[in-house]
């Protein structure tokens, strides 16, 4: 049986192989793939273009039906590669409210949650 996932995979032009890599990646690698661009002020401050999302970050939605709204990251679903933001709800037919799943590429990070010491170290390292 052929392995579904290989750590030594370097890439392919074929979209089907790219999709297979993303779909079969273990969760610790999928975690790296959930990242969003930083706002202009954060880009200048940290000299980075993008950063991985974390619970508690304040994000702005730039695509979709909730375009222009901001909120905190409430939950991150690694398997579906979706982010759930506070105050971004849809109403189901039975009247219940549920969070609306958003892909991380459709978000811009406005404020960072700097409670984590590791995250602070990464930002300081790049700053120098």
Protein topology:
Blueprint: H1 15-24, H2 27-33, E1 35-38, H3 40-46, E2 50-52, E3 58-61, E4 70-77, E5 82-85, E6 89-91, E7 97-99, E8 107-111, H4 117-127
Parallel strand pairs: 1-8
Antiparallel strand pairs: 1-2, 3-4, 3-8, 4-5, 6-7
Structure characteristics:
128 residues, alpha+beta, SH3 type barrels, 6-stranded mixed sheet, two-stranded antiparallel ribbon, 27% strand, globular
Provide an overview of this structure.
- The chain has helices at 15-24, 27-33, 40-46, 117-127; strands at residues 35-38, 50-52, 58-61, 70-77, 82-85, 89-91, 97-99, 107-111.
- With 128 residues, it is of the alpha+beta class.
- It has one domain (15-127): SH3 type barrels (Roll).
- It has a 6-stranded mixed sheet with strand order 2-1-8-3-4-5. It has a two-stranded antiparallel ribbon with strand order 6-7.
- The longest helix has 11 residues, at 117-127.
- The N and C termini lie far apart (47 Å).
